[in-house]
Amino acid sequence: MQFEHLGVRPRIHPDVVIAPTAVISGDVEIGAGCQILHGAVLTAEGGPITLGAHVIVMENALIRASAAHPVHIGSHVLVGPTASISGATVGDEVFLATGVRVFNGARIGDRAEVRIGAIVHLRTVVPPDAVVPIGWVAVGDPAQMLSPDRHEEIWALQKELDFPGFVFGLDRETPDLMVQLTERYGAALARHADDRRVD
Q: Residue 157: pLDDT above 90?
């Protein structure tokens, strides 16, 4: 299914194969030879998503851009089942395994591997040819790779990256943070009420 969102339609190379249950919404450009499998969602929430050539987006993966955080995925990239990419830049020949999470402002270099269930945190830079091990967390610039049992170290690095400020423009110390966050984000998402199916 393809939708016009905020007046912009997806632009898809004619040889791309899109499963009938995939959703492509808004300012999304998909290059030659790409495959978008069942349940995948590519949603441009006010900012563009660009996929190079021969990108495979597997079942139930989510790729989301915002006005402040576009998504660019290079060529010959595999986005595994249930993976999530939000507002990030991914180089060429990158492997993003099943269930990975890549957050806003992250940059993943060419030929890097982010293995099953790993996380590339907010504003993190994974260099070319690097590997984020299964279930580990990459955090910082340059990325430090930490096992999930090292929560205090991860939090110490992550806190400085300021998720609520960077993604939502809100101070973490705001007393009603979740009230403001959900109301502001909900208002932005409500713009989908005017979407129009175009396929």
A: no
Above 90 in pLDDT, residue 159?
A: no
Contact 45, 67 (CB under 8 A): yes
Which helix or strand (DSSP H or E) is residue 7 part of? Answer: none
Correct CATH for 2-197 of 3.30.1330.30, 1.10.10.10, 2.160.10.10, 2.60.40.10: 2.160.10.10
What count of other Cβ atoms lies within 10 Å of the Cβ of residue 19? Answer: 14
Evaluate whether 63 touches 76 at the Cβ level (below 8 Å): no
Tens of pLDDT, residues 55-82:
999 999 999 999 999 999 999 999 999 9
Residue/partner pairs of 144-153 with CB below 8 Å, 24 or more apart: none
Task: Note the pLDDT of residue 28.
Answer: 98
Which sequence spans correspond to the domains of the chain? Answer: 2-197
Q: How many Cα atoms sit within 13 Å of 179 on the Cβ side? A: 4
